[in-house]
């Protein structure tokens, strides 16, 4: 018997379930008058942010919503999105944030699959919401948010109530309860579904608590940080930053649309200290007409994830004054679970060497217990040589509970005791991982594996290229061969012959794209290039 467990049981005095909801409660008690949210001309103090979240929770409980119920939200980055990330789980329910760029059929699938009891929708997306509801089996209560900063006129055909009337029925002093178990679900979010119906990723309170705190530490966020919402909150619950800011009594600056001019205006006007986004957001900041020649007058940290950022874009961001940190994760890991922890001695490297270091994804996030690149069949780590490709795998408290109502997919994802990401990468001698491709994006030409990311990075080094995406196209002799889609910088032209010469100078012959397509490249709402759409164009 372990004597340190004898007569030393868990009880309410020494053991409480972890939940990020307590961060807002604390911030409202400690800094009630500090500005929590900026939205246009609107300013919301922590006291009022907390009270409105309590009102939402109270109103939901009055309607009979609670444990096991799903409240879906179709909202841009506006204050009610932040309120829903707190008020919905305060009621014991699960928040389901929907990508506003999805089609009606996909939204309908998600609403049915998640069993939505309520749908809160911004009026701008009311027509989309009603088109989705026309296809659903569930009949959620429809609630419409009218943004006073950005009014819209969509009238709608279905019975609905307003978001403010819903809140008015709630008690701002509502005595909400902690989850019965920190393993209880706090959210459900859906994967992109590029190879079939999207999978519902279920996250728990404990993981959200740990990642939210981890964000504050990893991002080195001081007290009263100012965070600009360039990352959609519907994407992995905004990487848990809706809960993180309360940890440091920070200020959320809402942004409905990601455009260069309002981003730069907000950075200067509100002295923004932190923002996140995919590499195309960085390219937008430094390559657009609005961003040309812009320089920061204070320190700003930019955290990027999704596809590995091109080295040229990283260099341009550094020259504009941003400190860029590479993150990596998935919906299944609550957002970022890997960080490029920066070594002081790397500051002395030349800019090309620094950007090569920054292009690596890095090491495990603070709240992640284990990270590895493994042979997916043998389940053994690959050599730390920066060359041997394996599958990136995760293990820890910031890995999802599993896929909702999909035990087969859950079992496969956790096969071997690790979460299998489907991403391919290498481990460098210093233990830092670097992505090489998604398993579905690797190009197999004549039996040789070709990384689309490697080719894209070479294309980005050409001064005329703004955006590049490489996919496999069928080839009669080699099976597959690289095809490059290219967007040029404004006012600059380049042809396939020139890009072929550029690639020949930087790549092995078999890796050179055999075909170039010059056209607009489709992206998701989070800035990820939709390679599934590109593959359709060449197959």
UniProtKB/TrEMBL annotation:
Molecular function, one GO term: ligase activity
UniProt keyword Lipid metabolism present: yes
UniProt keyword Lipid metabolism present: yes
Domain AMP-dependent synthetase/ligase span(s) in chain numbering: 24-404
Domain AMP-binding enzyme C-terminal: from-to ranges: 454-528
Source domain of life: Bacteria
Protein name per UniProt: Acyl-CoA ligase
InterPro entries per record: AMP-bd_C, AMP-bd_C_sf, AMP-binding_CS, AMP-dep_synth/lig_dom, ANL_N_sf
Any single biological process term in GO: fatty acid metabolic process
One Pfam entry name: AMP-binding_C
NCBIfam families xrefs: PRK08162.1
Family: Belongs to the ATP-dependent AMP-binding enzyme family.
Alphabetic keyword roster: Fatty acid metabolism, Ligase, Lipid metabolism
Species of the source: Spiribacter salinus M19-40
């Amino acid at each position: 018997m372990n004597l340190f467990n004898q007569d030393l049981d868990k009880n309410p005095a020494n053991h409480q379930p972890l939940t990020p909801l307590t961060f807002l409660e604390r911030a409202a008690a400690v800094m009630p008058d500090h500005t929590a949210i900026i939205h246009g001309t609107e300013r919301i103090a922590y006291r009022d942010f907390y009270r409105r979240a309590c009102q939402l929770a109270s109103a939901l409980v009055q309607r009979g919503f609670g444990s096991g119920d799903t409240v879906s939200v179709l909202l841009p980055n506006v204050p009610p999105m932040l309120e829903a990330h707190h008020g919905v789980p305060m009621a014991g329910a699960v928040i389901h944030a929907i990508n506003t760029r999805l089609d009606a059929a996909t939204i309908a699938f998600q609403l049915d699959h998640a069993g939505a009891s309520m749908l809160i929708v911004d009026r701008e997306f009311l027509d989309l919401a009603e088109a989705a509801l026309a296809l659903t089996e569930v009949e959620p209560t429809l609630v419409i948010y009218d943004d006073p900063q950005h009014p819209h006129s969509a009238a709608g055909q279905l019975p609905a109530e307003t978001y403010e009337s819903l809140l008015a029925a709630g008690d701002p002093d509502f005595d909400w309860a902690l989850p019965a178990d920190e393993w209880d679900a706090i959210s459900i979010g859906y994967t992109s579904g590029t190879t079939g119906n999207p999978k519902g990723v279920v996250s728990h309170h404990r993981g959200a608590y740990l990642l939210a705190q981890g964000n504050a530490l990893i991002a080195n966020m001081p007290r009263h940080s100012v965070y600009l919402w360039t990352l959609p909150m519907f994407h992995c619950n905004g990487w848990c930053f809706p809960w993180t800011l309360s940890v440091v009594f920070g200020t959320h600056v809402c942004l409905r649309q990601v455009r260069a001019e309002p981003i730069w205006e907000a950075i200067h006007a509100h002295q923004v200290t932190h923002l996140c986004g995919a590499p195309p957001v960085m390219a937008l900041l430094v390559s657009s007409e609005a961003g040309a020649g812009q320089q920061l007058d204070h320190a700003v940290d930019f955290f990027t994830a999704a596809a590995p950022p091109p080295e040229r874009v990283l260099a341009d961001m550094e020259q504009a004054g941003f400190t860029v940190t590479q993150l990596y994760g998935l919906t299944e890991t609550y957002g970022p679970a890997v960080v490029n922890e920066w070594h002081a001695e790397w500051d002395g490297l030349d800019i090309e060497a620094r950007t090569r270091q920054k292009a690596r994804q890095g090491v495990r996030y603070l709240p992640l217990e284990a990270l590895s690149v493994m042979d997916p069949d043998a389940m053994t780590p690959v050599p730390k040589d920066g060359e041997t490709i394996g599958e990136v795998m995760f293990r820890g408290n910031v890995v999802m509970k599993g896929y909702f109502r999909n035990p087969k997919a859950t079992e496969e994802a956790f096969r071997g005791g690790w979460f299998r990401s489907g991403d391919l990468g290498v481990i460098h001698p210093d233990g830092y991982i670097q992505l090489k491709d998604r398993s579905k994006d690797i190009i197999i030409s004549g039996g040789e594996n070709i990384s689309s990311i490697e080719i894209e990075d070479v294309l980005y080094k050409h001064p005329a290229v703004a955006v590049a995406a490489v996919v496999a196209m069928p080839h009669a002799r080699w099976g597959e061969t690289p095809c490059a889609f290219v967007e040029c910088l404004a006012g600059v032209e380049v042809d396939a012959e020139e890009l072929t010469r550029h690639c020949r100078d930087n790549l092995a012959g078999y890796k050179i794209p055999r075909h170039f397509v010059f056209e607009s490249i489709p992206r998701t709402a989070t800035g990820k290039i939709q390679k599934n759409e590109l593959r359709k164009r060449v197959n």
